[in-house]
Amino acid sequence: MEAFYIALGLVFQALPFVIAFVMAMAFIFFCVGAYNSSVFAVWVGVVVYLMSHLGVNSALRIGLNLSLVDFYFLLLGGVVAIRLVTGHLPAQDRMVRLWLLMVVVWMLLFLVGLVKFKTAAGLEFRSTFYMLVTVLYLMSFRIEAKQVGRIFMALYVAAIALAFLSIYRWISYAVGVTGLWFDPETPLRVLDSSATLVIAVAMLPGLAMWMGLNARRMAMMYTAPLLLLVVMALGHRTVWVVTLAALGATWWLAGRRRKGGQAGLLVPLGVGTLVLVTFFALAPDSTVTHEFQRSVAETQQKNSTLAWRVDSWKSLVDDWAAGGPLVWPAGKPFGAGTRRFIESQGMETTVSAHSHYVSLLIRGGILALFAYVAAQIVALRRLLSRPVAAPDWLGGELPALFIIANMVFAISYGPDYMQAFFLGLAYTLAVRAGPRSSIASVSTAPVPVPVIPHASRRLTHLP
Fold first, then answer.
1. Less crowded by CB within 10 Å, the N or C end of the chain?
2. Nearest-CA neighbor of 366 among 330, 334, 336, 407?
């Protein structure tokens, strides 16, 4: 018995070393896998994202609180640095140069902020670092159509999982079981706006298939109306606007192509509308009905979130403008904070800018804002006018829709790294797009007609 306790004590003594060895091997395995396969890195990122939404994102306290997400991007950032040094990023491309300009501006602001504001600079730089690493990482790969499809399917699986998580939480709320995700003022908002946007963007290919914009996949087509209902029920008005803008762009793109059938969109929209109208008619006093009425009514209030955001943006832009020529080109360093006065609320706040464009202006100045918007425009032009290495059920139009959706969402929110995966995929296709003449040669070249030599002469000698 004594030997058993001695052995047990040795096991517990060795356990920290075993865990450290396993973690080190896991980190090495991830870095090697991520360096060689973008599909692998995206799938790991999706798993980490879903774990964080399930509450499994515990922090390691080593002076800073480093979560699983932080570890993921620190390791991925190291992989990006190696791929940059080894020449995998096409630095001569215009889009890549715009992003490298943003890298230079943001890294300088981060270093200055680190000296002046210490850990506050790191905390504020987090989301920017996530986006930079994700976009640069994906742009460093020359991916084929099959890999593009696998990356999107990873993001699509994340959207399906988030939709089912929402349904599960609604059922839990209905039976009286709630968690940290529950807010009594908005009981149906069981996911934040960024996660809701993931669902909205992932359903775009399915909705586009109804209009013949891309090759059909029945599972995506018939899942799209369900995802649309989930997006509507989650009650984030900004995502509603994003969805409408993306659907409008899809409608336009379908009409731009001869084989598009714009009326096909009426099927999923009609199903969604019918379900909502039937629900409101049969259950006028339900939580769903009250939440929709509250969301619509809030837009007309003087102290609505829109009024709050407009006052917030005005205050931040005025502060940036007051900084003078030293602040205008590149903004203020990370960690400087975003304290401002909200006129509609009559109070100060320190929360984020609630607009990616305003955030770019105050943490990057004119240089970062110009580079970001220019990169979006260049990517859109290439995706809509050049051949890209994407499967026929995505094409170049759907990645363009990802960018359009992000551009609209960025008016009210900043992007998280799942949105950066969608953006990075679109940027990668745009950077590696073929020449514009390739499409013209395919669409306008005459079809060769086989000619039988001396056919007429042979016919004249027939008996």
1. C
2. 330
- Give residue 345's pLDDT band: very low, low, confident or very high (50, 70, 90): low
Neighbour tally for 30: CB within 10 Å: 18
Bridge partner list, 66? 60
Is residue 402 classed exposed, middle or buried when 0-12, 13-18 and 19+ CB atoms within 10 A define those classes?
A: buried
Q: What is the Cα–Cα distance from 130 to 52, expressed in whole angstroms?
A: 15
In our burial notation (b when 16+ CB lie closer than 10 A, e otherwise), range 70-92 reads bbbbebbbebbeebbeeebbeee
Mean pLDDT throughout 332-341? 86
> How far apart are alpha carbons 59 and 55 in whole angstroms?
11
Those residues whose C-beta lies under 8 Å from the C-beta of residue 193, and which sit 6 or more positions away, are: 236, 238, 239, 409, 413
Distance (Å, whole) CA 104 – CA 367: 10
User: Helix axis angle, 218-234 relative to 145-174, nearest 10°?
Assistant: 40
Instruction: Please give the full DSSP string across 325-380, using - where no structure is assigned.
Output: TTTTTT-PPTTS---EEETTTTEEE-S--S-HHHHHHHTTHHHHHHHHHHHHHHHH
Given this model, what pLDDT does residue 280 score? 57
Q: Where are the beta strands (DSSP E) in 53-123?
A: 60-61, 65-66
Helix 237-256 vs helix 193-202: crossing angle, to nearest 10: 20
pLDDT of residue 255 exceeding 80: no
Q: Which two tokens stand for residue 427?
A: 């940027």
The 10s digit of each residue's pLDDT in 368-381 is: 999 999 999 999 99
Helix, coil or strand: residue 60? strand
Torsion of CA 185, 188, 190, 194, to 10 degrees: -100
Query: Residue ranges per domain, the chain?
Result: 90-434
Token readout for 363 is 């943490």
Cα 46 from Cα 49, distance rounded (Å): 5
Give the pTM: 0.84
Provide Rg for the chain, Cα atoms. Answer: 26
Task: At 300, list the tokens.
Answer: 């007309």
- Which residue, 36, 284, 264, is CA-closest to 143? 36
Evaluate whether 159 touches 198 at the Cβ level (below 8 Å).
yes
